Amino acid sequence: MEWFNLNDNVNLLALIGAATIILATLFVAGKYIKQMRDDKSEGELIDTTWDGIGEYKNPVPMGWAVVFLLTIVWAIWYFLVGYPLNAYSQIGEYNEEVASYNAKFESKWSDPDYDTLMGMGEGVFLVQCAPCHGITADGMDEKAADLTVWGSEDAIVDVIVNGSKGLGYPLGEMPAGMLDEDSAKAVAAFMVQEISKTKTNKDSSLVAVGEALWPTCAACHGEDGKGFMGQSPDLSIYGKSSFVVDVLNRGKMGSIGNMPAFSDGRLTSVQKEAVGTYILSLSK
After folding, report:
1. How far apart are the first and last CA of the chain?
2. Does any domain span residue 73?
3. Is the peptide bond preceding residue 84 cis, with omega within 30 degrees of 0?
4. Checking CA distances to 127, which of 99, 121, 216, 218 falls within 20 to 30 Å?
5. Shared domain check, 39 and 120
6. What total of structural domains would you count in the chain?
7. Is this structure's pTM higher than 0.85?
8. Cβ count near 228 (within 10 Å)
9. Closest Cα partner for 244 from 139, 150, 104, 105?
10. In a domain, 275, yes or no
11. Domain encompassing residue 9
12. Which 8-state DSSP code applies to residue 45?
C-alpha cells in the first residue's frame, strides 16, 4: 500500500503522531475512569444541608481571583486609555494622510485665478455632478436640475413659480405659486439688479414693479435678501460661487432623489468654489 509507505517521512511522522494521540487519549481516559471508580469525596461541607445532602465548599482559587481582578483592571484601562486614544488604527492613519494632502492642496491653490478655477471646476463637475446632471449640465431631460440656468434671472423665475425645497433651512421650503409668472419676472429683475451680485437684468422697466412685490419675498429673506442670519437662503450672494457652495454644503432634496451634502470632506473649499465658478459660467 503506497499510503502506508513508512519510507516517506511525512507518512512516518503522521503515523507516530496518530499513535501518540491514541495512547495519550487511552491513558487520560483510563486515569479518569479509575478516579471516578475509586476516589471518595473529601472536603469541607457548607453549613446548610437539604434532606441530609450536603454541598462541598468550592472557594475560588486565589490565583484565579487575582487573574480575574487584574483582567477587569486591564479591560478598564484598555478601553478608556490604552485604546483607541493612544493606539494605531488604519482609519486614523487614513484620516491623517487625507488631512495632510488637503492641507497641501489648499496651500498650493490658496489663490487660484479664474482660468484655474474653471479648469478645476470642470474636472470636479464631470466626476461628482455629471452622473446626475449630465455632462452638459442640462439635467438630462429633467432627471435632475438644469444647471445651465443657475445664477441667471430665469432660474429665479423658475423657483418663484415652481417653488424650492430640500435645502434644510429653518424657515422650511419655499412653496410654489407665490406669484404668477409675470410678477415672478418682475421680482427676478429687481432681485438680480438690486439684491444679488449679478447687477444686470433683461428688462430694467420691470425693476420698479418687482420692488413693489419684493415684500412678499422679504417676509422670509429679509429686506436685504440676506435670509435673516441663516434662516433662509442668502439671496445677496446669488450669482456668486458662494451661493453654489452653500447648496453643495447642504445638499438638496429633488423630485427624483436627494443630492448628498458635500460637507463630508470629499471636496475642499477650493474645489467647491471652482465648481461654483464653472456652474455659473454655464448660464453666461
Report:
1. 89
2. no
3. yes
4. 99
5. no
6. 2
7. no
8. 16
9. 150
10. yes
11. 1-43
12. B
